[in-house]
Amino acid sequence: MAPDADCFDLGCGYGAIGLTLARLAPQGETWMVDRDFVAVDYARANAEANGITNARVMLSNAFAAIPADQRFDLVLSNLPAKVGNESLTLMIADAYAHLNAGGRLYVVTISGMRRFIERTFEEVFGNYEKVKQGRQHTVAMAERR
Question: pTM of the predicted model, to two decimals?
């Protein structure tokens, strides 16, 4: 990852992934969103406690509060398993819309969702790569070409 990469953590929780991205790309900006205001408060507090100033934490239902013209080099998410296929498809399509050319989407899902993710990545991005698969979780990646 480039030190000036702009990153997006979808469903940031308390900020573990997003704050790591912000540290790895200190000249870029990392946006972190969650639909849970408690998670957003914790992520903000963790950014402050760790002196991370290039992270923007905000309340948002996926990409709803993100400007349509905002683009990222990297989008990461530990996708929720119980929001339904329609919501997951919208999140993936919105990630595609917010990625720069050459940008990548990485997702962690329960392994039972891997075929759905593969099909959806192929439909939306035209590509899919299984990065790692364990008994319970799978990491997948797609690139906007």
Answer: 0.95
d(CA 63, CA 97): 10
Handedness of CA 8, 23, 78, 12 (dihedral sign): negative
Residues for the chain: how many in total? 145
CB 129 within 8 A of CB 142: yes
Return the ∠ at Cα 33 (arms to 59 and 141), rounded to 5°: 155
Rounded Cα gap, residues 124 and 1, in angstroms: 23
> Cα–Cα distance between 20 and 123 in angstroms, integer?
30
pLDDT tens-digit series, residues 76-114: 999 987 888 999 999 999 999 999 999 999 999 999 999
